[in-house]
Amino acid sequence: MDLYIIRRHGIWLNEDELAATNEKSLQVGEEMKDRLRWIRSYAVTEEDGRIGSVCIYEASDREAIREHGERIGAPSEDVRVARGTAVKRDDPEPVTVV
Question: Which InterPro entries does the record cross-reference, listed alphabetically (predicted)?
């Protein structure tokens, strides 16, 4: 399995939409657990105020990432294989948990 970074640009209008996608992602991720594992995500505020994300997944291949995105209603063409981890520190306490 490789580590992937997925950037979803401004696809949510609000935190309720983001939370619904997160729930769906957990469900679909469980169904795909032999091909994909959600590591973490960071929600970001886009310049237009919409919500985007940077997600870290472990997956068997890009097709698993693509299928997962389609099934949760959050596809992305901005998918990269991570080459490594540069800084190893715990994340700070979250401001908001979605």
Answer: SCO4226-like
What is the CATH classification number for the domain harbouring 29?
3.30.70.3090
Residue 89, pLDDT score: 74
CB 15 within 8 A of CB 60: no
Q: How many domains does the chain have?
A: 1
Residue whose C-alpha is closest to residue 55's, from 20, 3, 90, 13? 3
pTM of the model as a whole? 0.83
Write out the two tokens for 55: 């997600």
